[in-house]
Structures are given as structure tokens and as C-alpha cells.
Amino acid sequence: MIYLREFYLPNAETENDRFYNERRTCYNTFYPYFIFPKLQLDKIIFEPLTIFYGGNGTGKSTLLNIIAETLKLKRNAVFNKSSFFNDYIANCKSATSNKIPSESRIITSDDVFDYILDIRTLNNGINSKREELFEEYTENKYSNFKFRTMSDLDKLKAVNKSRSKSQSKYVKSELMDNVREYSNGESAFKYFTEKINESALYLLDEPENSLSPKRQIELTKYIEDSARFFNCQFIISTHSPFLLSMKNAKIYNLDIIPVTTSGWTELENIRTYFEFFEKHRSEFVDF
After folding, report:
1. Comparing C-alpha atoms, which of 3, 54, 30, 71 is closest to residue 232?
2. CA 13, 18, 22 angle in degrees (round to 5)?
3. I need a surface site. Which of 109, 206, 235, 280 has the fewest CB within 10 A?
4. Per-residue pLDDT of the chain (287 residues; tens, 9 = 90+)
5. What is the rounded distance in angstroms from the CA atom of residue 38 to the CA atom of residue 10?
């Protein structure tokens, strides 16, 4: 499915005209102006799977944020804007093939990191509650409590419950909202599977962060299936060889000027991996 078909950035002429008569001296940056004309990039044509690849500082994340803000996509984490960011996106244009669904969103590394911290905090709270319940169970089970008035009814119920259950069953019954403690990688992968639903446009900024190679392969398959079977479109910035290898993905190589599309095996990072493993091929014979 293609929702966003094309996106147009201000070209060099437009940017130069915008600042020709600029007299302000209180700014030391006009970000995000003057990034993409250097790359000779002013038009992007999208496929169901489109990837932005390039080294640090080439503008991959900036490009995703520009698209997300222009389209007014949902987002959780805030990002650094300059005084000229809104002015810049006012000069951007887009063309769609289908109406962009309201559930479309951008997912950044900060979103995933915040989610991991939330899970960790919640689990820490549950661990504290669990310790309190252990003490409560022991106190109730072996107490000499005697029921005297109706005000003692709740205490009586707690004592009876403790005496009728094992410690583990008592604690589990009291922790109805118990949350499994996930590893960071498990939590990150869980976040993507929760946020990526059917029929929407998703912008993913380096989703491989916090994911092991195995989890990156699982996420690659999840994204491929979502695009193929569930009417999703993805625009992704990544260095991950697993994500870059996605079938039928269109890859914009921001390391080349002018920016061109490349096959994943032509990319510098991938060639570096390949040469490294080729050099150590003999060490893998037993596998």
C-alpha cells in the first residue's frame, strides 16, 4: 500500500531566495535549511518500503522529522526544533496516492527508550509490592487474629485468604496486574508490535536500536508482512543490514551526492560487514 507517494523539499534556489535579504544576526544556525541542497535532494518518490541510509549527520532523522511534521503525524517523544523548522516545513509539499490514515505515526529511538524505562519502573513497583505481600501473607497466616466487630471483616477475609492459599498463589492473586519483566530487547520489540497496526503509514527512526540481531531479523519480517498483507507503508532510517535487506525496499543512499537509490549489497556498511566475515570465513567452518 502506498499512502505517501512523493515528497518535495525546498531546492537550493528556494532556500537562497528565502535568506537573500535575511538580516538577523542572533541565529547561529538555520537548521534544517542548507542540508539537503548539498545532497542535491529535493524530491523523494516512495514505495511501500522506503529506506534512508547514510552515515551519522547526513540528515536521515531530520528527513523523517520533516516528513512527520509536514504530514502532522502522531508522535510521542519531542525533538529539537530550530527557530526556522516550522518555516521550513511550510515550504515542503507532498503528494498522496491514498488518504493518510489517522493512526499513522513516527516512532523514534526516544519513544522506544521511554517505553523501556516505563516497563522497568512498573516492574520495580511490582517487585516492591510483591515483597509487601510476602510480609502480609506471613503476618496474616500466623497471626492470632480474632474477629470481634464488623470493622474487623476485611482483616478476617485477608487472614482466611492467607490460610487457604500457598504463599505463591496468594501473591499472584493479589497481583492481578502483574507484568512480566522483559529484557530491553524484548520490550523494544514489544513496543513496535503494539504500535504498528493495520492500514497506516509508519516512519521508523533507527528501529534497530536496543534490538539484538535476532530481534532485528524478527522485526524485519514483521515489517515486511505488515507492508505485504496489512496495508502498511514504511519509511525507515537505518544502518541495520537486516532491515536494509528487506525485499523490494527502495533505498536512498544519503552518502552519495547526488543522492541516488542503491541496492543493499552496494552500501558501504554492508560491504564492510561482508569483507570482515569473508576475512574470517575459515573460523566459521565448524558451524
Report:
1. 3
2. 130
3. 280
4. 999 999 999 999 888 888 766 655 566 678 899 999 999 999 999 999 999 999 888 899 999 999 999 999 999 877 777 788 999 999 999 999 999 999 999 999 888 888 777 666 655 555 555 566 667 767 776 677 666 666 666 766 776 776 776 666 655 565 544 445 556 678 788 889 989 998 999 999 999 988 999 999 999 999 999 999 999 999 999 999 999 999 999 999 999 999 999 999 999 999 999 999 999 988 887 65
5. 12
pTM for the model = 0.77
Say which CATH superfamily domain 45-76+94-108+184-284 falls into. P-loop containing nucleotide triphosphate hydrolases (3.40.50.300)
Domain locations in the chain? 45-76+94-108+184-284, 111-174
Grid cell 537486516 is found at 242
Please count the other Cβ atoms lying within 10 Å of the Cβ belonging to residue 256: 17
